[in-house]
Amino acid sequence: MTYKLLLLDDEQAILNALTRVIKRIDSDRFGGPCQIKTFTSATEALACVRQEPVDLIITDFRMPAMTGLEFLREAIRHQPDVARIIISGQADLPTVVAAINDTQVFRFVNKPWDDGELQLAVVQALHVYALSRENQRLADLVRVQQGTISRQEAALRQLESECPGITRVERDENGAIYLDLDD
């Protein structure tokens, strides 16, 4: 399996360092390679989240224009099951609690980070993400077997998990399908 990671920080040097640390993780620990996309703009990162599935988001907490929590709240609207890690050099207890309670981040990592700790957090977040997806798939299979949900409903859930947003159709006031060219 290839995991897709999205890294967001307003400093390119931090993104470069994060990428180097993650690329040094042995791919056997993931069960396959990782694709990494980096962004210095939360707006551009959100456009990516709207258009393609992502398995893990690592975002800085303090950024201009949009905080990491604000970014994650919006990203979760499009991909509710994505794994999330926040990094910050200016963390206080209320900030950490808000991140955990509001966006259910998997881990809050302080800057400067320990490379081994960050690598472990990434590996663990992706393992938990994969287990969650597999548990949902198996639970849907059991529901189909018990007749609780239809095969079509299970297939739609699987499709939605692979391509978030694909099963939702927005309509205008006349019932016509609404297409957002920015998405």
TrEMBL record:
Q: Which UniProt keywords apply?
A: Phosphoprotein
Q: Where is the Response regulatory domain?
A: 4-126
Q: Which Gene3D superfamilies match?
A: 3.40.50.2300
The record's listing under InterPro entries reads:
Bact_response_regulator, CheY-like_superfamily, Sig_transdc_resp-reg_receiver
The protein's matches in Pfam families, at most eight in alphabetical order, are given as: Response_reg
Query: Which parts of the chain are coiled coil?
Result: none
**Which residue positions does 4-aspartylphosphate occur at?**
D60
Q: What is this protein called?
A: Response regulator
Q: Which organism is it from?
A: Fulvimonas yonginensis
